[in-house]
């Protein structure tokens, strides 16, 4: 199919696929005649180019980059929703759909048009439905991750990425990169390449190597780890570094998810410990973290025993009461932010300043 739509928020994978298509479809000897790249052009330009034929042997390749036809337009912050909606409608209506459809339906078999959109493909839009009739759609959505929960899909991607650099990578090392770099595939690829070169002539990338080369001090996970350790200074330093490149509301939401999971872990650990101490003449003891992690992996969906063991260790000094109180406090602060009574960054700092004192009172034994 000579018309292709590459769409999705995961631009690293998207543009890598675009490079592969260029190498596959375009004859380098004729590239100066048969290659065109347009940055969000008008529909008329696309229609005119769609009728063109390749010069000489091989294919003609037309790339329509940063195309905004297949995603809903957002209104600017200074305009009302109604005004934004009118502008978006006007922009869509400026495309002559009949002329565009006629052009796409009659593209020469050796003329390839690739639409590139760094937004997810919205199937409800008229232009999206029109394109779907004649184009092959390739989607590149950004993979969602949850702190402490490994992603099998991203682990597999890391393995394939390591193979590109003639290496293999330990799953725990992949999880470390995924979580620490917040699933930024461009950065993860760079770190894997760096590790693959560093270990030469060896080819196996371990967690220890990744920790040595790629410490992720600015992730939400790192902030939470300092917080649980009761180190207020390091907590605030890593928080401020994180706030420099991530939205505070996203951090609040991630902390809500993490604390909810930690409450579940602590309750299950207490249950396992009680069950192990049941019976006459049995001296009370706590199960080791490694054993608890194996038990947790069977009860928590998507749980990885390695990650769960780390959670059990870092939560050893935190009580269920402390975690529940922290989640309630975080919910109250989040509500103040959403109602405009407190800046989001202020709410985060206030939360992390209050909690270590509670931790020392409730979490230590």
Output the keywords.
two-stranded parallel sheet, alpha/beta, 17 helices, 365 residues, elongated, 8% strand
Which bin fits the share of residues in helices?
A: 55-70%
Mean pLDDT, to the nearest integer, reads 82
Task: Give the helix/strand class.
Answer: alpha/beta
What's the story with the biggest beta sheet?
A: 5 strands, parallel
Number-wise, the strands total 7
- How much β-strand is present in the residues? 5-15%
Strand order of the largest sheet: 2-3-4-1-5
Order of helices and strands: EHHEHEHHEHEHEHHEHHHHHHHH
Give the low-confidence spans. Answer: 75-93, 359-365
Span between N and C termini?
67 Å
Shape: elongated
Rg of Cα set:
26 Å
What is the number of helical segments per DSSP (H or I, 4+ residues)? Answer: 17
What would a concise description of this structure say?
By secondary structure, the protein is α/β, with parallel strands linked by helices. The chain has helices at residues 11-25, 31-34, 43-50, 81-93, 97-105, 126-134, 152-164, 171-180, 185-198, 207-213, 220-228, 232-243, 248-276, 289-299, 305-314, 320-338, 344-363; strands spanning 3-7, 35-39, 60-65, 111-117, 136-139, 168-169, 204-205. It has 17 helices and seven strands.
Describe the protein:
By secondary structure, this protein is an alpha/beta fold. It is built from 17 helices and seven strands. It has a five-stranded parallel sheet with strand order 2-3-4-1-5, with helices on both faces. It has a two-stranded parallel ribbon with strand order 6-7. Strand 2 (35-39), helix 3 (43-50) and strand 3 (60-65) form a beta-alpha-beta unit. Helix 5 (97-105) packs parallel to helix 6, helix 8 packs parallel to helix 10 (207-213) and helix 11 (220-228) packs antiparallel against helix 12. The longest helix is centred in the C-terminal third of the chain and has 29 residues, at 248-276. The chain starts with a strand and ends with a helix.
């Amino acid at each position: 199919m000579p018309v292709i739509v590459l769409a999705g928020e995961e631009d690293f994978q998207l543009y890598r696929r675009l490079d592969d298509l260029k190498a596959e479809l375009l004859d380098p000897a004729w590239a100066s005649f048969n290659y065109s790249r347009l940055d969000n052009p008008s529909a008329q330009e696309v229609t005119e180019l769609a009728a063109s034929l390749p010069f000489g042997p091989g294919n003609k390749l037309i790339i329509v980059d940063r195309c905004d036809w297949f995603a809903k337009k957002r209104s600017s912050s200074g305009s009302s929703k109604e005004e934004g909606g009118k502008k978006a409608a006007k922009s869509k209506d400026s495309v002559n759909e009949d002329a565009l459809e006629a052009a796409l339906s009659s593209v020469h078999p050796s003329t390839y048009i690739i639409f590139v959109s760094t937004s997810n493909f919205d199937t409800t839009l008229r232009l999206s439905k029109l394109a779907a009739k004649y184009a092959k759609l390739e989607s590149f959505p950004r993979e969602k991750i949850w702190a402490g929960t490994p992603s099998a899909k991203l682990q597999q991607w890391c393995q394939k990425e390591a193979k590109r650099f003639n290496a293999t990578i330990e799953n725990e090392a992949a999880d470390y990169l995924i979580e620490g770099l917040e699933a930024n595939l461009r950065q993860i690829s760079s770190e894997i390449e760096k590790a693959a070169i560093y270990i030469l002539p060896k080819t196996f990338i371990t967690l220890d190597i990744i920790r040595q080369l790629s410490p992720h001090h600015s992730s939400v996970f790192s902030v939470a780890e300092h917080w649980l350790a009761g180190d207020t200074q390091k907590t605030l330093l890593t928080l401020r570094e994180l706030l420099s490149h991530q939205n505070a509301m996203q951090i609040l939401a991630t902390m809500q998810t993490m604390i909810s999971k930690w409450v579940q872990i602590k309750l299950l650990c207490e249950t396992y410990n009680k069950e192990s101490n049941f019976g006459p003449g049995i001296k009370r003891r706590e199960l080791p973290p490694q054993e608890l992690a194996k038990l947790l992996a069977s009860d928590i969906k998507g749980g990885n025993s390695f990650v769960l063991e780390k959670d059990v260790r870092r939560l050893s000094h935190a009580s269920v009461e402390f975690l529940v109180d922290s989640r309630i406090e975080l919910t109250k602060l989040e509500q103040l932010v959403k109602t405009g009574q407190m800046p989001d960054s202020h709410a985060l700092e206030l939360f992390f300043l209050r909690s270590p004192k509670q931790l020392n009172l409730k979490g230590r034994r």
